[in-house]
Write a structure and sequence with these properties.
It is a single chain. With about 200 residues, this protein is of the alpha/beta class. The chain has one domain: P-loop containing nucleotide triphosphate hydrolases (Rossmann fold). It is built from eight helices and five strands; from the N terminus they run βαβααβααβααβα. A five-stranded parallel β-sheet has the order 2-3-1-4-5, with helices on both faces. Helix 4 runs antiparallel to helix 5. The longest helix has 25 residues. The protein is globular. The termini are close together.
């Protein structure tokens, strides 16, 4: 079984990945952040480093996705390969931080890679408004994230909503984290686990 967790920066993906690992014993795969050689530079100069960062994420997630689908254990993944192209690369191109040449090259690479991949059995989308995202970003204390502009998060939210509305590769479970603060509220945590358990049982 392959579960992927998607959502904006600070939506709770890593926390939910850890929770599902603890609850079900699913093998967790976390987004590469602390060892990412481009992320601090990207936040300092998005136009200079956007293409490098996106290709780094794309290659890492392609390798991981392929390993997951070839394996024989249940896995929960923090952020999917689809978000790289459908959300972040689109946004960077739209705001002029990735030029047409790099964007065209990136999209072609993404299309070629994903044509070889089996999609997740269940995609969990963590929906969150801007105040929730800002609070979570502040609480986890990554220095390079503290200066993220609100408009950047807003654009990502819009792209996420548009992507989820047209996602047709498999089943989707949407969890509103503004109302379901599973990170800090144990009762809400149980409610979220119930929703996921129900979604998994419906699939299998």
């Amino acid at each position: 079984m392959f579960i992927a967790i998607s959502g904006n920066i600070g939506s709770g993906k890593s926390s939910l990945t850890s929770l599902l690992h603890q609850k079900y014993g699913w093998t967790p795969h976390f987004e590469s952040v602390d060892d990412n050689p481009y992320l601090p530079d990207f936040y300092a100069d998005m136009q200079r480093w956007s293409f490098h960062l996106q290709v780094y994420f794309l290659s890492k997630r392609f390798i991981l996705h392929r390993e997951i689908t070839r394996g024989n254990v249940s896995v929960v993944q923090d952020r999917s390969i689809y978000e790289d192209a459908e959300i972040f690369a689109v946004n960077l191109h739209d705001i002029g931080m990735m030029d047409d040449r790099d964007y065209t090259n990136y999209k072609a690479l993404y299309a070629a890679m994903t044509s070889y991949l089996k999609p997740p059995d269940l995609l969990i989308y963590l929906r969150a408004d801007i105040p929730t995202l800002q609070r979570q970003i502040r609480l986890r204390g990554r220095d390079f994230e503290q200066g993220i502009d609100v408009s950047y998060l807003e654009r990502l939210n819009t792209l996420y909503e548009n992507w989820i509305a047209r996602y047709a590769a498999g089943r989707v479970l949407v969890i509103d984290t503004d109302e379901m603060d599973f990170v800090h509220d144990t009762q809400k945590q149980e409610e979220v686990l119930y929703l996921i358990d129900h979604a998994v049982r419906r699939k299998f």
